[in-house]
Structures are given as C-alpha cells and as structure tokens.
Amino acid sequence: MEPQTRFCTSGDGTRIAYMTLGEGPPLLHVQAWSSNFEVSWESAYDRAWQEQLAQGHLYITFDRRGSGASQRDVQDLSLEAHVADVAALAGHLGLERPDMIAATDGACVSIAYAAEHAARVAKLVLLAPFVRGRDIVSSEAIKGLQELIRGNWSLARAAIANIAYPTGPSERQRWFADFLRRSASPETAARYLEFHATVDVTAYLPRVTAPTLILHGRGDRNVPIRAGRDVAALLPDARFIALDGISSGTLDPGGSGYAAVAEFLDEGQGRASSPAPEPGSGTAIILFADIVDSTALAGQLGNTEFRERSRRLEMLVRQSIEANAGATVEGRTLGDGVLATFGSASDAIAAARECSTAGANVGLQLHLGLHAGDVIHEDGNVYGQAVSIAARISDQSAPNEVLVSQTVRDLARASSDVSFEDRGERELKGVGEPVRVFAVREAV
C-alpha cells in the first residue's frame, strides 16, 4: 500500500495536508502536535503500525496546522482551530461517522471534536490521553523548555527526544530529534508546548457520546497512567486498558494494544463504511451564506474577537447544514462565504433559517441566499451558474434574512412549513435574465 497525499482548507483558510491509505470503514487519526506523516512513513516502525491500522480500513491522517506538509505560517493554535481542522477534513472527504484514533494532545482535539459533533463520530480510541495539560506538566518546566527551544533548537530537539523515549534506543531518539527538525519551526514548537501545557477538555468530556477505548502504558513518564484513568472516569461510555510499556503515541505492530483496538473497532459492525463517491453532476439546492460587512466588523471588534466569533459561527453553520442533510462545500469558508448543497428544498430552507438564528446569537449577521439548478462536483468544489445565482441572491438579502429564488419557492411550497413574501424580480450581476426572489417568513 502506498499513501496518497492531498490538501483541504480549514475554516480560517489554513491549508491542511492529509494522507489516505487502504480501503474500508474510515479511521481518522489525529496526530500529536509534532506531526509529519511523510517523514513518519520513512520510518519502518511507524509505517508498520499505520499499515496495520489501514488493514480493513480507510486510514486517514493529517499534519496539524503549522507542522509537516500543512501550512506552516499560522497564528492560531487554539483548541477551537484544531477542531475546525478536523471538521474541515471530515467534510472535505464526506466522512459521515468515522472512527477516530488519537494520542496525547491529539486526544484532546478528538475529545473536543467528538463533543461538538456527537452525531459525526462512531467510536473513539485514545492513546495516553489527559484532561488538563497542567495536570501532567508544570508551567515552570514548559517555560524552561520553551527558552531552550528558542535559544538552541538542536539541543532542545535532543532533550525532547530523550523525554519521548527515555529508555531509548538511541537510534529512535536520534530519528525523533531529526523528525522534529523536519516537522516544525522552533517558534511553532515552542507555541505547541504552550498548547500542550494549557489545553483543558474538562467541559467536553461529559458531552462525548461515542463509545471510547483508552489505552495507556503503565510506565508512561510523559503522560502518567492516572491521567488516562481520569479521562475514562469522566467519559459516559469508556473502557480502559493498561498496557505494558511506556509509549504515549504509537501501537506496537502486532502487539496487544493493536489487537485491542482491532477488536474494539470491529464490534457492532453495520454502520456506513467508506465515503460515498463524489457525484459528477446533477441538480442540487444551493445555500450561500456570507457575513454582513465582515471587513468593517473586523475593524470594529478587533481581529481576535472577530476571528473567535466567525469561528464559532462557522461551527454552528456547519452543524445546521449537517443536521438538515446538507453537505458543506469545503472550497468555500466564511471568509468567502459558506456554500452548501442539499437534495431537498425544505431541508435547505430549514438549514438557512437555523444559520440565521446562529448569526444573531453570535453577533455576526449573515446574508443568506438559496437557488436550485444543475451543478458539477469536482475536486471537492461545486461549479455552475446555479452556484453564482445563489451567491447573487445572497448579496440581495437583508441581514439574517433568507432569500430564495422562485425555483426554490416552487419546490418547497408543498413541503416546507414557511411562507414566502414576493420581493419581485431582481437584476443579478452576471445573470442574463431577471430572477424573481422571495423572502422566507413564518407560516401564516
């Protein structure tokens, strides 16, 4: 088996590199912060356990933002940003309910994702997880290591390799030190250590509904086994297995840990497996949503506040689309507008109305437009004049108003529990003929 490397775009525009391997039900692997799957593939040991995970599965992994083949020059390393990256990848690949596997701080990302997208995760496998970074490492130790990283990256890499593999072998320590050099810049590494030491998933754990298997080495010196037990105690449906050894992030090929994972994932089969093939063309209901006066708002709120609100809104919009049987088109994000397709006009209208409510709750108003027509699906994006018309109708809508074309109104009149207010014909830029539009209102 040879891996395939591709890219998708996260909610804030960050490019995320991902790899797929094998065939079968999807298994999404969230790496620890020092991720570089291309370099890992060069290691016979790492390649062996990834190939085992790909046996009978579509194994998917990705490089965390700022590292590996993913976009390096990123500012936002927050937990929310990492969760958005997972959501973007899952949406891009059309993963309905993948199993997930993750280690250490990657487990924190997976826990938060599973809590925020409970219906989108089948099972969780967590290797050496922890609840709070401060429970496993002191702020003084992190500050000291950050200073070393920024002052002498070569020496710091050797120190981190010794921490990760305290008993060797020396060849593995040297390999990991070089792996770090090829995975991230010193500044990114220092900032990721800050993330590792401060992340806290306490509030997310009770909301995880997916059955979860936790594996933890009895002699783990980086994440003590008590940390894994704490995670298991706070999850509604978790089982805990203590393993011999000290490894925090990998499974020994053919070992008892891998066997436990395989048995756990095979239990209760019958759910959807690999992602459905991308359709070539056809008719779709198209939703286009765009933040009202985003440039001016960013100036008023400040970049940080605006980014936090837009990220929250992005998540809520995606949830509304998914909950109403829609598919987010990953080629577009809230920076350019969210584009989604639906098979039903009533579902599309319901999603648009929920998006309007989400915008009001977050404090970022949306332009929302719907149209129906033939589209072409290609490379994770959707093309066609119908898409352009939906975007132009969105431009015509008042803040948080859902505006639809006559085509959508006609399709939804008998099935949607709303009424439609005729707004007359509009001349839309780039569209030859006027388009009659209607505002969606409460049913009368």
What is the compact description of this entry?
The chain has 444 residues and is of the alpha/beta class. It contains 15 helices and 16 strands. Helix 3 packs across helix 4 (104-116), helix 11 crosses helix 12 (303-323) and helix 12 (303-323) packs antiparallel against helix 13.
What does this structure look like?
This protein has 444 residues and is an alpha/beta fold. The chain has helices at 37-42, 44-53, 79-93, 104-116, 139-151, 153-164, 170-183, 186-198, 225-234, 256-266, 294-301, 303-323, 345-362, 385-396, 406-412, and strands spanning 4-9, 15-21, 26-30, 58-62, 99-103, 124-127, 212-217, 238-243, 281-291, 327-328, 338-342, 366-378, 381-383, 402-405, 418-426, 435-442. The chain folds into 2 domains: 4-266, Alpha/Beta hydrolase fold, catalytic domain (Rossmann fold); 281-442, Nucleotide cyclase, GGDEF domain (Alpha-Beta Plaits, 2-Layer Sandwich). The strands form 2 sheets. Strands 1-2-4-3-5-6-7-8 form an 8-stranded mixed beta sheet, sandwiched between helices. Strands 9, 10, 11, 12, 13, 14, 15 and 16 form an 8-stranded mixed beta sheet that branches. Helix 5 crosses helix 6 (153-164) and helix 6 packs across helix 7 (170-183).
